[in-house]
Design brief:
Layout lengths: L1 H51 L1 E2 L13 H16 L3 E4 L6 H17 L8 E3 L10 H17 L1
Parallel strand pairs: 1-2, 2-3
Length: about 150
Amino acid sequence: MKVYKVIVVCLAVIALAGCSENTQKSHDTHELNSELIRAYSQISINNAIVSRHTLFPYHFVDNSAELNELGKNDLGVLIKHYKDNPGTLNITQGDATDKIYLARVTGIIEKLGDAGVDKSKMIILDGIQGGRGMPSEEVLAILQEEVTNSQSE
């Protein structure tokens, strides 16, 4: 009976060791998959930041020219992009006073230069991606004109 118990215990230990290896492999695979998902998500977020190429008032400490943590992060992503691909950066004024807005723009231009971005190839605008947009009345007039033109053809 003791031999039987020893054999059962040995088999249980072997089985648990095998399960432990499978559990470890499963855990390692889960960790790898999680890291891949995080990396893919970060790439997507960075692409969105570059595509938007805009610093909004919420990127700054209220009533200040100082960037908050989100602003520092987004500007860092933009700087990496602008080093090789200078272009347009929108910095929206929002409700900031002219004095604070000027300080924000000046500070951002300085940060771009300090990071090695060719400032002479940069365009800084007070706007949002895609431009100012168009009043709905103008859109309706254009659409009406297109309808009229297509009906007359």
